[in-house]
Amino acid sequence: MTDAAGAVDRVFREEAGRAVAALIRLTGDFDLAEEAVQDAFETAVRTWPARGIPLNPGAWITTTAKNRAIDRLRRERVGREKTDGAVRLAALEALGDDVHEIPDDRLRLLFTCCHPALAMDARVALTLRTVGGLSTKEIARAFIVPETTLGQRLARAKRKIREAAIPYRIPPRELLPERLDGVLAVSYLVFNEGYAATLGELLRAELCDEAIRLTRLIDRLIPDRSEVRGLLALMLLQHARKTARIDAHGDLVLLEDQDRSRWDRAMLDEGLALLGSENEEGSAGAYELQARIAACHARAPRPEDTDWPAIASLYGRLAELGASPVVELNRAVAIAMADGPDAGLRKLEPLAGDLERYHLFHSARADLLRRAGRDREAADAYRRALDLTTNDAERRFLHRRLAQLAGGGR
Amino acid sequence: MRYILLIYDDESSRAGVSHDDRHEMDQAYERFANELAERGAMRGGDELASTTSATTVRERGGELLVTDGPFAETKEQLGGYFIVDVDDLDTAIELAKKIPAVHGGSIEIRPIVEG
Prior knowledge:
Radius of gyration of chain A: 25 Å
Largest sheet of chain B: 3 strands, antiparallel
Strand content of chain A: under 5%
Structural class of chain A: mainly alpha
Number of strands of chain A: 0
Structural class of chain B: alpha+beta
Helix content of chain A: over 70%
Oligomer: heterodimer
Low-confidence stretches of chain B: none
Largest interface: A-B, 16 and 17 residues
Distance between the termini of chain A: 46 Å
Shape of chain B: globular
């Protein structure tokens, strides 16, 4: 891809969601809106490299897409009955050319795409497609599903929105917190899919970038919500470590072994600034607490400087919000770092039933056993973890650990 | 005595039906509806949109659960129905969660085909 084409692609993706959102509000038709914006993209690819990117690309895209939508509706009107199309056409034609009049409808679009009456995988795909401006092909590749499957998922979701009359609006005040949670959950799922891919490649950074972009957008559209800020901070603080998490062979590097000079300092500082200092005791939500845990790592120049007692206490508060064996597992590891491996192992024991099939339980337990000098039991636990993990990089990591135990080294 | 006649069929076969067959089926239903009317037995009836547009609402432990898709368990049985005319799915969900059976049971929301 040439630089000019790359720039068109980037700017277009940034701005396309706004045009899609506006056209959906005006026409009530997801497919028409997407096709018209796609037409506008093709025009941009043809004309921008030579003429340069317009001063206000968002307005250019909205105007061009609006005109393409009008063209499409006029063509359709020829053979067929006029009912729906005529109403839509009238709405578009009434708009005129001053797109500055068009309000930003992306928040509406986000709430519709993340509606709880849609299946989670449909919410994710639809949000990335319409708000994020990703192509069906890109989304299919990121989630390792065939493009046809993803296309059907999108078509089915759009049909449900239409047939079941899922509203296109920002939810009323009483529904807002609950629905906002749903929007953030989609964003976080996209991030996690990139951060800890369950199959094959460990890190698909572009999904993390996309999730951060989405969360920034939510933060801009609904400012000053602590849960949005908390999630954005969490993503930035984790993503800042991306290049240090993977070594030259594509293998996972543990937090304590990472070269901290390779952490993205600007991204960490932005995350820390978003968190600020905690003012109201006990008011922090789950994302913010997790972000504060990540911040403890970000602030430590060396692993041994980590404030483990603070991390253990944050995990304790996270557990109070909703008891989860995985949170308890992380808390046990933090306690082990603060008070020694035996203290951690005592906390792990009661979790064995719930987490028997969870590879990270066995690898964490193996690590604590190794630190406690119980090598034989550690080796058994590493083997159990190996049986359960499907991620290539994690498998290689566990094999290395096992080999180190056998060799008597660290 | 009032009865409800519930229609179960394979909706995937309905989706692939040709225009002519569809027309024939519509006429057959119309003939049935006319017969009901003539006998003074008609109290209402509608075609439902396919289950791909269904939403199921339930409340468990004080938490409202909204899921995509039709009611799928076999432990509970159909026990009644309401037809409501509202603006959108959010309003239908808001009403569904006030139906007593939402605690412990499930409410399936299905759009009615208009026209």
